[in-house]
Amino acid sequence: MWEEFMVSVQNISLYKTEERRILVTVTIPAGTPKNLTNAVITYVVNNADGTEFFRKEGADITIEDAVNGVFSFLLDGPVDFADIISTYVFPHYCVVIDFTSIMDTVFTGYLKVIVL
User: Fold this and answer.
1) Does residue 68 contact residue 21 with C-beta atoms inside 8 Å?
2) Alpha-carbon Rg for the chain in angstroms
3) Model confidence over 53-100: pLDDT tens digits?
4) What pLDDT score does 8 carry?
5) How far apart are CA 47 and CA 59, in angstroms?
6) Rounded to two decimals, what is the model's pTM?
7) What 3 state SS string does 47-106 have?
8) Rounded to an integer, what distance in angstroms lies between the CA atom of residue 41 and that of residue 36?
9) Which label site among 18, 20, 51, 74 has the fewest CB atoms less than 10 Å from its CB?
């Protein structure tokens, strides 16, 4: 089941040696925060061919403020991208399944990992 939802494009760049916490606020089109109480959140980074490179879910996602739709996850360059030997751009996306089993795509875009 889907509901009307505002999907944003989120392009991120980080160095392979960098660690960065990504903070996300989820809102519906009216601008109201989406309640994330008991939500299941999944962040996925794919290879260019569409196969999954890695995902973060469960304990990898921190609900910062459920009622106000805020969560975060850590991109840990040295761990998540240990096998990357040159700069690479990955498609990525994040989805939320709320307590009523409604699934929303929160964002899509590209993650650029820079190797010096």
Assistant:
1) no
2) 14
3) 999 999 999 999 999 999 999 999 999 999 999 999 999 999 999 999
4) 84
5) 23
6) 0.91
7) CCCCCEEEEEEHHHEEEEECCCCEEEEEEEHHHHCCCCCCCEEEEEEEEEECCCCCEEEE
8) 9
9) 51
